[in-house]
Write a structure and sequence with these properties.
Elements (H helix, E strand, L loop, with lengths): L9 H13 L14 H9 L6 E5 L2 E4 H17 L7 E5 L4 H13 L2 E4 L6 H8 L4 E5 L3 H4 L6 E5 L4 H4 L4 H7 L17 E3 H9 L14 E6 L9 E5 H14 L8 E4 L6 H12 L3 E4 L8 H8 L3 E4 L1 H21 L4 H11 L6 H6 L5 H15 L9 E4 L6 H13 L6 E5 L9 E2 L13 E2 L5 E7 L2 E4 L6 E6 L9 E2 L3 H7 E3 L5 E11 L5 E6 L4 E3 L2 E3 L1 H8 L5 E11 L3 E10 L6 H15 L9 E4 L13 H9 L4
Helix pairs in contact: 3-4, 3-9, 10-11, 13-14, 13-16, 13-17
Length: 640
């Protein structure tokens, strides 16, 4: 059979490249996505009802348990007047109850808006003022109860179908041996109740549940991270979320019965919504973490041993830091003056979740200190990571140097699984494409659209959108088809919606992402950051991602972020914020070495940052991305 020739126009070559990457597509017509998320979920797992769906602090919940719980929550919601068209707000960490709540609202036809528990008071008040019901994490209730003018249900992060509070030992195991916290005292009223009382409202009711699914209706609202401005509420339909689940099925990843996945994201992130609805529909067992301090990730990984990881670059960074810490401790053991070297470690390294423990070692004599370090290395070493089958990372660009270093650490611990780089937007239910594994992908931080997603890169010529040729940079856009993951629009912001969902001259509708990218001849997308983050210095454009990739080449650079800072003479200058692996190095010498790398590897001199700022820790926003606002505040406090 003659191989089809490529034209160099990515949208035309898409079908040829898609067949090369994914193979001949099977028949998936039996999967109807035009139904509620809950109905789609039940259809997918009807033959897995007795399998474990969730393990949460040592409590195992089967698919049958979850389905029963969804019906129970739906009946309880009905008792409170929640029905088709109602608006429910959830301010909860990651718990099984959140899943039951989302599916119950989907069943009833109500709209649910999961909100990040870290949201500030002013924003929270605005987000909840239209709600018919608020489900609130109990630790937040004493602080925020006066802003909730609606019916309020107060739940606990360790509720877990009212069983988990009996498992004190399990709780201690996951939360650093802390005592089980006292329950917040809730003054019950017609407007306020706790989760258990809420569940009792529907547990023994026989009243028929009135399903309220309507195609095209807003089912869930997820907030953007605010990377390019204030966070916006993205309105998604059941069909949007089910579409993502179907795309994961079409990827044909080699998941097998008994496979597990670690869930350490928040329900307020669209990446969580699309991915974990998909994996639940595929029948995987999920380890759900209610709260996870970032530094604890390596410990949780080696304890639970999940086969599949869905996470962000920042989590992989913790694995590298943990391994570097162990390597450094091994070197300390060989030093004659072990106390001096160990003190240097304590003052110069990121000790992750081991800071308190390691600092306590200083009270020992040299022989005991040496023994304690050996015991620590044995306990904390990452060990054998060969249990990992898939690693999918998203939320931010995984830079090439990060990819190389993480792969080095993983292979050192017997994990040769390629890291699958993903790309997604809240506006597309969190997932648009991934870099396929099993030899179908490419090396580096690139990705290929999910099987039914069509993407293209456009530039403006004579006030018209013109598609870029292969390897030509422009704005990344996602085609809006009848079946799509693309949002309805932004809540209460039709003007912004109309600016990003645009009809082109050929009558096709596209979502404009504000992301710079190019598509190579094989159809793989190379993302180059946000258009709004491009720095324009004296009329010349500077890509922060390009500069950051060079900065990360220096062995002392742990993480970095390059931003544009306003300048009256040249409009803006690039400033690099850098976190070092070791704060005891000669800072001036290290900066000079970094500057030399920029001179050597950056094509243009003006790409080299005008200022290098060394910081102890990278400030992050709620999505785990570097917080540009806080970095700008920091630079304003200094004299450029």
């Amino acid at each position: 059979m003659e191989e089809k020739k490529l034209t160099g126009i990515p949208s035309i070559d898409y079908k040829v490249n898609k067949e090369r990457v994914y193979g001949i597509e099977e028949d998936y017509s039996m999967y109807d996505i035009d139904k509620s998320m809950f109905e789609y979920f039940v259809d997918c797992v009807y033959d897995k009802l007795d399998d474990t769906m969730i393990e949460y602090l040592d409590v195992k919940i089967t698919y049958k348990d979850m389905i029963k719980m969804v019906y129970n929550v739906a009946r309880s919601l009905q008792e409170l007047g929640i029905q088709k068209g109602s608006y429910v707000v959830s301010i909860m960490p990651n718990t099984p109850e959140v899943r039951a709540l989302i599916y119950a609202c989907s069943l009833l036809g109500a709209t649910i808006h999961p909100i990040d528990p870290r949201t500030n008071k002013e924003a929270l008040k605005k987000m909840t003022e239209q709600a018919d019901l608020v489900i609130c994490y109990e630790d937040l209730y004493p602080t925020y109860n006066e802003i909730f003018n609606n019916k309020v249900i107060v739940s606990n992060a360790i509720e877990c179908f009212s069983k988990i509070r009996l498992l004190k030992e399990a709780y201690k195991l996951y939360r650093n041996n802390e005592r089980l916290p006292e329950r917040v005292k809730i003054v019950k009223s017609k407007l306020v109740t706790d989760w258990r009382s809420f569940i009792k409202k529907g547990k023994y009711r026989t009243k028929k549940i009135k399903a309220g699914y309507e195609s095209g209706k807003v089912a869930i609202i997820e907030s953007t991270s605010g990377t390019t401005g204030k966070p916006r509420g993205v309105m998604l339909t059941d069909k949007n979320v089910n579409y993502v689940a179907l795309q994961h099925l079409k990827l044909q990843l080699d998941y097998t019965k008994g496979d597990t996945v670690l869930d350490l994201l928040l329900p307020s992130i669209a990446y969580w919504l699309g991915t974990f609805h998909a994996l639940q529909c595929l029948g995987l067992k999920t380890y759900v973490m209610p709260a996870l301090v970032l530094e604890e990730f390596p410990h949780v990984l080696t304890k639970l041993k999940p086969n599949n990881l869905i996470l962000g670059p920042i989590h992989l960074e913790q694995l590298v830091k943990k391994d570097n810490l162990i390597e450094y401790l091994i070197q300390v053991l060989d030093k004659e003056d072990i106390k001096k070297e160990f003190l240097k470690l304590l003052t110069s390294r990121d000790l992750l979740d081991s800071k308190e423990k390691l600092e306590s070692f200083m009270e020992y004599d040299e022989n005991t200190l040496r023994q304690k370090i050996k015991e620590f290395i044995q306990e904390e070493d990452l060990g054998d990571l060969s249990f990992i089958k898939h690693i999918i990372t998203g939320g931010d660009i995984l830079k090439e140097e990060q990819l190389i270093e993480t792969s080095r650490v993983l292979s050192k611990h017997n994990c040769y699984t390629p890291i699958t780089n993903g790309y997604g937007l809240t506006e597309c239910c969190g997932v648009v494409g991934i870099n396929p594994d099993r030899g179908r992908g490419k090396n580096g931080p690139v990705w290929f659209p999910l099987p039914d997603n069509e993407v293209a890169v456009f530039k403006i010529v004579n006030n018209k959108f013109v598609e870029c040729m292969a390897n030509e940079e422009g704005e990344l856009c996602i085609k809006i088809n009848p079946d799509t993951s693309v949002m309805i629009g932004y809540k209460d912001d039709p003007e912004k919606t109309n600016k990003c969902k645009l009809l082109h001259d050929d009558k096709t509708m596209w979502l404009h992402t504000n992301d710079l990218a190019f598509i190579d001849k094989d159809g793989f997308v190379h993302s180059n950051g946000r258009i709004s983050e491009i720095i324009i210095k004296a009329g010349f454009k500077i890509s922060p991602v390009t500069v950051e990739n060079v900065l990360l080449m220096h062995p002392m650079v742990s993480s970095c972020k390059v931003i544009g800072v306003p300048d009256p003479k040249v409009r803006a200058i690039p400033v690099a914020f850098i976190v070092l692996n070791d704060n005891n190095v000669d800072i001036n010498k290290t900066i000079e070495e970094i500057r030399e790398l920029c001179t050597k590897y950056l094509t243009y001199d003006y790409f080299t940052p005008d200022k290098f700022v060394i910081i102890d820790k990278m400030p992050l926003n709620n999505s785990g991305k570097p917080d540009r606002g806080k970095l700008l505040q920091k630079i304003k406090q200094e004299t450029l």
